[in-house]
Amino acid sequence: MIKKKVVVVGAGPGGLTAAMLLASRGYDVDIYEKQDDVGGRNAALKLGDYTFDTGPTFLMMLHILEEMFDLTGRDMREYLDIRQIDPLYRLAFRDGTEIFPTSDSAKMREQIARLFPGNEKGYDRFVKYEKKKYDRLVPCLQVPYASPVDLLTKRMARVVPYLDAHTDLYSHLGTYFDDDRLKTAHTFQAKYLGMSPWQCPATFSMIAYIEHVGGIHHPIGGLNQISQAMAKVVKEERGRIHLETPVEQVLVEGGRAVGVRLASGEEVRADHVVLNADFGHAVNHLLPRHQLRKWTPETLEKKSFSCSTFMVYLGVDKIYNIPHHNIFFARDYRQNVDEITKSMTLSEDPSFYVQNASITDPTLAPEGHSTLYVLVPIANNRSGIDWESHKARYRDKLLDYLEKHAGLTDLRQHIVAERMIVPTQWETEHDVYRGAVFNLGHSISQMLLFRPHNQFDDLPGCYLVGGGTHPGSGLPTIYESGRISAGLILKEDAWL
After folding, report:
1. 0.85 cut: is pTM over it?
2. Which of 20, 147, 227, 235 is the most exposed place for a label (fewest CB within 10 A)?
3. Residues 466 and 480 in one domain
């Protein structure tokens, strides 16, 4: 039997998931990656002796990742050393209030009762209701959507009463809690989707539930080690990964994807193409314009996109005694969010996130040193902000905040290595459309059937994976996109 050949464009988490699943089922798999390492935005960023995750730092829904390895006949724990982080994170407000959410529901309830008396009953209702939402909605995110008929299922009928699409996330949390700080503590997760809690559908209130019940984890070496482990599986299954080998265009014959043309001019033929490039970038640069009907550059301009991020990675000659994950809210959180998502202006009082991973993981820095990963949600490049003229000043402002509000006193004196990534760099250096690092927005009108389909509508033989397709952004859902697309290929070839 002649093996079917699959070409995967991009070695990000979605592409690697699809590749290892298909290779384990006997497909002849080649991955072509522009960068010099696997992972995409899930790759390691190295500054001398310091190692950072470029992008994602929260690992949730660990069972999804375990399932991907199980499907290849492997035990994930043999490839990754994973630790649970608890408390999950520190949430710090300008009035001095600090919340330390935990996976221990009894401790979480006690903390709420102590800090926000009376709201512990709301927490009980939150856990009970959001579990029902989770149990019904997650199965809907694990199957493809290609036509309206796919919405007319018993599975979807069960979830409709729990979608809460009629209201926004912040208002929905008001049905549980009466303190704005407590609402914010359960709605800030909208940042994972690059959206405002006042615009994000209340559907996503279950993200906080997922964290509280399933926990947050950290692989030793960083989340980038997940991509390294997946790449290892691909190679064990005799798949090939071609680094520093950019793809120029998807090849089309007879209206079907038949391979790719590399930047070198070489053409590689395949039975199927899995596209793991950023979706907006792919539409504008990798897919033949004449082939596009439903999804064109003009269509994209009418869609809503997520926010971007201003990043600072710091290697320091000190270990700070702050938690692994830390989130610091602006004094006026709603104004800050509106500046990111509505007026698209540069916030002078930003919220920001700090990962102090070295307190958990000593492999990331030399002994006695540590890595600090700092992220500021910021407007995407539709804002027109001139980052060349603003980035140095904004970096200094951020260091002031870190020293004053984050417990990183005298930080400037301890910096050994540093790198910044601003929204324009996400677009020009990492091929992220509009610098929108969380891809297309996650409004109901851009979810499920209304998101780019895993079997790309405009091009038979081309399958999409990553945050720009169904089910959406975030590592667990990106892994699911890889599983869905691999399943569609197997189905097309009648292997299922």
Report:
1. yes
2. 147
3. yes
